[in-house]
Automatic annotation (TrEMBL):
It is found in: Cytoplasm. This is Upf1 domain-containing protein. Its main location: cytoplasm. Keywords: ATP-binding, Cytoplasm, Helicase, Hydrolase, Metal-binding, Nonsense-mediated mRNA decay, Nucleotide-binding, Zinc, Zinc-finger. GO terms for cellular component: cytoplasm. Residues 149-179 are annotated as: C4. The lineage of its organism: Eukaryota, Fungi, Dikarya, Basidiomycota, Agaricomycotina. It catalyses: ATP + H2O = ADP + phosphate + H(+). Residues 89-121 are annotated as: C3H. It comes from Amanita thiersii Skay4041. Residues 103-131 are annotated as: CC/SHH/C. GO terms for biological process: nuclear-transcribed mRNA catabolic process, nonsense-mediated decay. Belongs to the DNA2/NAM7 helicase family.
Length: 1071
């Protein structure tokens, strides 16, 4: 690997004295001419203060290269007889003292060789095991040394870096934050700080890479074997590679299927996956105990005790903390008798503070006079997983859980399309809500006529308003109550607010752990309606008495609970609509209620078993609303994810040819911001409900490179670094420029609350927050108001301006889940007025998806470099990626590939056979990957030259015309000539909002297919029922594999999607 022997950091800008590389700076400067500032690291020693042992490294014997070779050859003369020394690498067996280090947490040794992986073995282990402290070998050049911070003593190697002292033979180790950032010591230059781990290996002057001869003679181990071995070490610290070969060690659960014979087979496949996820979640939570917690005590508005404290482990991103989660505090010190108390989280870390607020259930005996020495435990609760298991069991054994039609559709069986006999309303728009556009009205009309409907709502298309309008008409037209659910509390609250605006009686059911939390719909919650009820005078007296005294007598408590249950039953029974989370639908208070109609919003963000909870309560009509082109469910266990638990019910139904109705008019983004997402993810069908002048802020004077195009990609060449958690990344160059851009927005007249900073990595999120606080040129309070969050946290939300920090910038490591098209789609579609992307185009352009985005920005003149006050068009040249976009996208669509193989011909008048063209001898314009992917899931052509946009011809961008895939006249080919042989794929892509009449067999064949090419407005006006389309021919069912979209180093705001739980399966049977 590269060393730092002849490099130093550019001092273009600093972060508290620490170097920050500007966009137009190089990371390192080679061949330094100034001998005074050059650094020779060939014979460095660590400053004595940085050595834990205090030994003088010069006293240790150095092992020459020849001696290394001799030692290796001697040890390996007879591998079957000679045992490796105790300090041999636990992965590959390399044992040169200069090349190995010992993990101080598990006492295992690892070398600095990469082997067959992209990271060195020691870094691989530290990241996988989440260990952070090491010690060098006693016979290494630097001796038996534990690297630690010169100032604070921190031993976290992911935080440590070095600064050469003015003495050329000594380096000083300092942690990235806070010591290097605030260092003012005149004896060293803090701007030269560089991390000890570069490109996922220790620097060669600290831990020598093994020689080629050593690596050739070492044990060859793959990344997959490393992962499996690390997993085994969690259970058995003495496990070896040989143990991996034992039968049953790495058994994979059965993967999900597109179709199921019956509900018992359905439960037999999903039940074990839910249990695997539950067991993993339980183990993860219970392993996160944190000691030596410092508490700040306070009293809440309800007179309950609130503990405020910080949990350092949250930065790893593996444990998700949401409002309403339960934590246990314990104290067993000498200053107070042993105490423990359980409470629920009322506040989680944000830009203003990293503190957690925990409201305790009981106030008596709380040691408020003690502030140090507490222990915090995560309380694991089984509620959400138990309810999933119970829902699947109910689906199997209770014939009344769903209607016969819904039962068979959920299992994927072929059925005759069913039309409900309903009296259509005269107006589809609901009172109190905005008027619906044509595609929204078509969606409402279609839903009212079908027992099962899917609605795809791309970003900004008014999905919530459409859902609320649907609920209004369903409640008015059908007997019984409507159950409205979503996986997260935020989504439920937003929909509850819209439904209430229509005048319907709405009850918002919340978990008891969230009843004390304030929200915009608090007055609609069940507990608030009970408290405000005037029908039960005796209950009101008891409530008042309990508030005054804190507790009731045993008799009064029994009477209180009886009256509460009675009042809750009356309020729930009188409601038109009940709103709750999907898991909340399993609340015992709803047990005896039956819901004929169920609507699930954000259905693509819920795991399929989660959606089953509200569905098995007697539903006969189901509406699923979501967008399978945005982020899906969060599954923590990799085995469950690989088996397909990350695929939502919405997606599986789409794969089975249940075509979603797509909302087509977006009202959020400036037209130039919606162009790329529309073309890349929605076949060019998104229309703009706002004009460019409506999305240009006249009072904001921001220097956009192209004045009428409020977007640009800002070239940043600074290198990524591993964050302090070891499982995430940060980029100091991009963080510095985020602050500069935010400051520029402030000075241009933008309010801080209108700015959002999105970054995929928790390490970068934390670093940006701290950087802006310490280095912002304006008042700190301004920067605190900027929301800095992950892509996941921003899904479903919007800001006026978005700054996207891509972070990844390296030579060999790739870009991780930045390559996930859904993640990019969400990140690009949050802004209303402007987007700024910061990244390294050289690295990103190697990946097809980003290559298209960068080409798009370059053609618009918005790929720029240089200082912010003088941005210039970037001259960077990036080569075409090796992989085609189709192949790249397929890794994120494994469950969709070959979807048509599972489809049987539907008994319908409209049969679309995409292979007819090939059988007839007519050549096809589209490759096999198009035919294998379900129409409604999006078409990304490999032959981008076949599309119509003139910009496409030079850039390769798969763009359609602005109004959609259908335009007047006939499509033109690359050379501008008329192309009449083939119609566009979008003519059968999805059931957008129009009628597909004409000769369906000629849709792809060409020739007569021109009769299908209605304009968007024509198709909307021709609103009619669609026939179902499927492929002629059947094939056997097979398992579907699913890509795990979630990476372990990302930060995800689950917001109650992952309810905590304790205990076991509570007697629920898994068949």
């Amino acid at each position: 690997m590269d060393t730092f022997d002849n490099f130093q950091y550019d001092t273009a800008s600093t972060y508290g004295g620490m170097s920050v590389i500007d966009d137009n700076s190089s990371v390192y400067t080679e061949n330094i001419q100034d001998n005074a500032s050059s650094v020779d690291l060939s014979s460095l020693s660590l400053s004595d203060s940085a050595l834990q042992t205090g030994d003088n490294p010069a006293q240790h014997a150095r092992v020459t290269l020849d001696e290394d070779f001799d030692a290796v050859l001697d040890d390996l003369k007879d591998e079957g007889v000679v045992d490796l020394p105790p300090h041999a690498c636990s992965y590959c067996g390399i044992h040169s003292p200069a090349s190995v280090v010992k993990c101080l947490i598990c006492s295992k040794w690892f070398c600095n060789s990469r082997g067959n992986t992209s990271a060195s073995h020691i870094v691989n282990h530290l990241v996988r095991a989440k260990h952070k402290e090491v010690i060098l070998h006693a016979d290494s050049p630097l001796g038996e040394t534990t690297p630690e911070c010169y100032n604070c003593g921190s031993k976290n190697v992911f935080m440590l870096g070095f600064i050469p002292a003015k003495s050329d033979t000594v380096v000083v180790l300092l942690c990235r934050q806070p010591c290097a950032a605030i260092s003012k010591d005149i004896s060293w230059n803090a701007s030269l700080w560089a991390p000890l781990i570069d490109d996922r290996s220790f620097l060669s002057w600290l831990v020598k890479p093994p020689s080629e001869q050593e690596q050739l003679r070492s044990r060859q181990i793959s990344f997959a074997q490393i992962n499996r071995l690390e997993d085994m070490w969690r259970e058995n610290a003495n496990a070896t590679l040989e143990d991996l070969e034992k039968p049953g060690v790495d058994d994979e659960p059965q993967a999900i299927l597109p179709r199921y014979e019956d509900a018992y087979q359905y439960q037999n496949i999903f039940g074990p996956l839910v249990k695997i996820e539950a067991d993993y979640d339980k183990k993860l939570k219970e392993s996160q105990t944190q000691t030596d917690i410092t508490i700040r005590w306070d009293i809440g508005l309800n007179q309950k005790r609130v503990a405020w404290f910080c949990l350092p482990k949250l930065e790893s991103g593996e444990v998700r903390l949401a409002v309403g989660d339960e934590l246990r505090l314990r104290y067993s010190g000498e200053l107070h008798k042993p105490w423990e108390g359980v409470g629920h989280v009322i506040k989680i870390p944000n830009n203003v503070s990293d503190e957690i607020g925990l409201e305790l259930r009981k106030t008596e005996g709380v040691p408020t006079d003690i502030t140090h020495g507490f222990v915090a435990d995560f309380v694991w609760k089984s509620t959400s997983f138990d309810r999933m298991q119970l829902a699947m069991k109910t689906f199997a054994v209770d014939e009344k859980s769903v209607s016969g039609y819904i039962y068979h559709k959920l299992l994927g069986h072929e059925l005759e399309p069913q039309i409900l006999r309903t009296q259509m309303p005269k107006r589809f728009s609901a009172p109190g809500l905005p008027e619906l556009n044509h595609s929204q009205m078509f969606a409402v009309k279609s839903v009212l006529q079908k027992p099962l409907s899917l609605i795809q709502g791309p970003p900004g298309t008014g999905k919530t308003v459409t859902s609320a309008s649907i609920v209004y008409h369903l409640a008015k037209m059908n007997p019984g109550q409507v159950l409205v659910c979503a996986p997260s509390n935020v989504a439920v609250d937003q929909l509850t607010e819209k439904i209430h605006a229509t005048g319907l009686k709405v009850v918002r059911l919340t978990a008891k752990s969230r009843e004390a939390l304030d929200s915009s719909v608090a007055f609609l919650t069940l507990h608030q309606q009970v408290a405000n009820s005037t029908a039960h005078v005796e209950l009101q007296k008891l409530i008042q008495l309990k508030n005054e005294q804190g507790e009731l007598s045993s008799n009064d408590e029994r009477k209180y609970k009886t009256l509460i249950r009675q009042c809750e039953k009356e309020i729930l029974g009188a409601a038109d609509v009940i709103c709750c989370t999907c898991v909340g639908a399993g609340d015992p208070r709803l047990n005896k209620l039956r819901f004929r109609t169920v609507l699930i919003d954000e259905a693509t963000q819920a795991a399929e078993p989660e959606c089953m909870i509200p569905l098995v309560m007697g539903c006969k009509q189901v509406v699923l609303v979501g967008d399978h082109q945005q982020l899906g469910p969060v599954i923590m266990n990799k085995k469950a994810a690989r088996a397909g638990l990350t695929q939502s019910l919405f997606e599986r139904l789409v794969v089975l040819n249940n075509r979603p109705i797509r909302l087509q008019v977006q009202y959020r983004m400036h037209p130039c911001l919606s162009e790329f997402p529309s073309n890349m993810f929605y076949e060019g069908t998104l229309q703009n409900g706002v004009t460019a002048p409506e999305r240009l802020r006249k009072n904001v004077d921001f220097p956009w490179p192209v004045p009428d195009t409020p977007m640009f990609f800002y070239q940043n060449l600074g290198q990524e670094e591993i964050s302090s958690s070891g499982t995430s990344f940060l980029n100091r160059t991009e963080a510095s420029n985020v602050e500069k851009i935010a400051t520029k927005f402030f000075k241009s007249g933008v309010v801080p609350a209108q700015i959002g900073v999105i970054t995929p990595y928790e390490g970068q999120r934390s670093y940006i927050v701290n950087y802006m606080q310490f280095n912002g040129t304006l008042k700190k309070d301004l920067y605190k108001e900027i929301e800095v969050a992950s892509v996941d946290a921003f899904q479903g939300r919007e800001k006026d301006y978005i700054i996207l920090s891509c972070v990844r910038s390296n030579e060999h490591q790739g870009i991780g889940f930045l390559n996930d098209p859904r993640r990019l789609n969400v990140a690009l579609t949050r802004a209303k007025y402007g987007v700024v992307i910061l990244g390294n185009p050289k690295v990103l352009s190697k990946h097809p998806l980003w290559h298209y985005l960068l080409t798009h920005y370059k053609e618009k003149g918005t790929l720029v470099e240089g200082p912010l006050n003088n941005l210039q068009a970037s001259m960077i040249q990036f080569s075409k990626p090796r992989r085609s976009l189709v192949k790249s996208m397929e890794q994120f669509r494994r469950h969709e590939t070959n979807a048509r193989d599972y489809l049987a011909p539907a008994p319908s008048a409209m049969i679309v056979d995409p292979m007819a063209a090939r059988r007839s001898g007519t050549p096809s314009r589209f490759d096999a990957s198009f035919y294998r992917t379900h129409d409604a899931l999006g078409y990304i052509p490999s032959d981008v030259q076949s599309l119509r946009s003139q910009a496409t011809y030079s850039s390769g961008l798969p763009m359609f015309g602005a109004p959609g895939p259908y335009g007047p006249g006939v499509a033109r080919g690359v050379n501008g000539s008329k192309r009449t042989s083939y119609s566009y794929a979008s003519s059968i892509v999805s059931q957008d909002a129009g009628h597909g009449g004409a000769d369906t067999n000629s849709v792809i064949n060409g020739g007569s297919s021109i009769s299908m090419a209605y304009s968007q407005s024509d198709r909307i006006r021709r609103r009619g029922s669609f026939g179902s389309a499927s492929v002629a021919g059947t094939s056997e069912l097979g398992s579907i594999s699913q890509y795990d979209y979630k990476s372990q180093d990302e930060s995800v705001d689950l917001d109650d999607m992952k309810s905590q739980y304790t205990g076991t399966q509570s007697g629920v049977t898994v068949f």
